[in-house]
Amino acid sequence: MVNEKDLQTENFIFKLIKGEIEQNPFGRKMCTRFPPEPNGYLHIGSAYAIHTNYTVARRFNGTFHLRFDDTNPLKEDIEYVNAIIEDIKWLGYDPGNHIYYGSDYSDEIYDAAVKLIKQGKAYVCDLTPDELTEYRGTLTEPGKNSPYRDRSVEENLMLLEKMKNGDFSAASKVVRAKIDMASPNINMRDPVIYRIIYAEHYRTGNDWCIYPMYDFAHPIQDAIEGVTYSLCSIEFKDHRPLYEWVLKELGIPEPPRQREFGRLNLTGVVTSKRFLRQMVEGGYVDGWDDPRLPTLHGLRRRGFTPESILGFIETVGSIRTESTLDISLLDHCLRQDLKEKTVSVMTVLHPLKVVITNYPEDDVELLTIENNSENEMLGKREVPFSKTIYIERDDFMEHPLKGFHRLSPNGEVRLKGAYFIRCEEVIKDTETGEITELHCTYDPLTKSGTGFTGRKVKGTIHWVSSDHAVKVDVNLYEKLLLDQDIPKEDSEDWKDKINPDSLVSIKGALMEPSVKHALPEQKFQFFRHGYFCVDKKYSTHDRLVFNRIVPLKDTWSKK
Q1: Is residue 244 annotated as part of the catalytic site, yes or no?
Q2: Fewer Cβ atoms within 10 A, N terminus or C terminus of the chain?
């Protein structure tokens, strides 16, 4: 899946690590990991992090681990575990047998807490959550020592044992590292490393009622697995001193190293897991796989391919800071991937009936049409043509504006792969005045492929035969948020920014019969409409549902 050429590109992460390993800091081979918490679905930003860790492992002939950071039973679930494994394999970053679970290291992490207490580097604290916040201080003011900071080693060990045995209520006690309450880095001000949680864990059940914090468990898990580089996004840079402190105090030989890369955001989409969860649980979207979401499940259901996502990541390259990119770049990469892979078919979204009055009543003609104008290897197909067809309603204008080159009264256009037709009569509903039908004539001399040069027309429109058309449902997607700006982490106003027109569903669109047996996730180009994918969630044998992946218009190329 990963482009071998991309592995040779000397991005800043590769250069940094190459310079460090030349000093031989490890007596083991390269090992990286991706450590998601199974409390939601992966998104496009996750793909960037996975790619970074995976390619570093490949670049330096190492191994890549998938490890679930499952040390908080309150929101974690096996549903998310399975979805994450499925997404990573779909992208092509298969970890093989290297799938691990942080909860499997519960005994080792607990023993590490005991060791720190025995060394006088950790203690049990009785401050309430509000008091912990108060004592922590601010960015401009130092924190205050907890009144429980100087408990004896014996008392701390006894209290930790009681915490483990369930003798205390939730949030009544925590274990804290003893570092420096005056540190300019707030993460080093005696951070909490264990807390009490009474909840059933999806994997370990009720074996434990105390759980480690990520910043404490993470470096220990890395050390257990032999990880050499913990590559994470830039927001964890201030956590690196704590990562290194834990490993140093535990005396880990050849400790793994944390290094950071930039965080990737896209305009008009929400990648914060908290926001995604609120939209899913609030019913604003159709689950974690809603095609409007930037989750990998959502992108896949919409029709994005692993190749298009990889192309996007490779185009972005390695970034050093938090960056927001125009989502049109992702759309562009999808078009580039699909333009020579997909069959172009004719689909009428808003049908207008056309009767070709001079065409034989019962004749059905099979017309040969190319499948892809840019890739002749995709071959050709036969499309039935008959006396009654349907065209797009907006391909006809009774009183055409200047520059309108499609069908109009007494005007002539070419039907894609077929003939010239001329509109002779417009039929309207007598009560509403709505146009219900057009009567046209065709010129049999103008058949496509015959080399006719007698006259030219300026417009070509698509069509489907009335007797052979397949009824389908079509979902047209636009961006989920009205504004390009991403709501701030502490903001709730994103709900007011949801685009009410982000989903338009069309029932009873008409397609040519070649798509009748299309498979879930199969992709097509709808002539003049865009790229579409068979929805795997709602399509049935009797009724196909298509999701528009992207329109044909490429705004990124113009930029």
Answers
A1: no
A2: C
